[in-house]
Amino acid sequence: MKKTALMALLALVLAAPAAFADRGPFGLGIILGEPTGISAKLWLGDAHAIDAAFAWSFADEGSLYVHGNYLFHLHDLISVNTGRLPVYFGIGGKVNLRDDPQVSVRIPIGLNYLFDSVPLDAFLELAPGIGLFPSTKADFGAGIGIRYYFGGSGAL
Prior knowledge:
Order of helices and strands: HEEEEEEEEE
Strand content: over 45%
CATH topology: Porin
Helix content: 10-25%
Largest sheet: 9 strands, antiparallel
Distance between the termini: 40 Å
Number of strands: 9
Mean pLDDT: 87
Structural class: mainly beta
């Protein structure tokens, strides 16, 4: 009985790295900066993804904040020894839910490090944009974050 339990434990330990490396297409984590809150990403393929944040904006008087983007990733621009470091850019929108709600277009540009051995990514993003409602004005956001990817056999 002890030998069987030891063999089962050894098999689990040896299989654990493979399970962690099997990244699913949906990731959930945090973003810190402007905004700060929850970040989600869904890979649609190797180069395409959508991401969103449900967060708090510290700009002006502070407000609840939601954004969504369509992203395109360039995997071959930056070479790293382990993992991958695609550059990405995209287009999306955001809403600041305050007394006077603000709607903006955003153009995120960033770096997204994809770890090899664990189902995590880390990102750094700049997001210039333009406010559309209630007035037209320049808009800017930036953040860093990390996400954990659920499931396996995803696009990545």
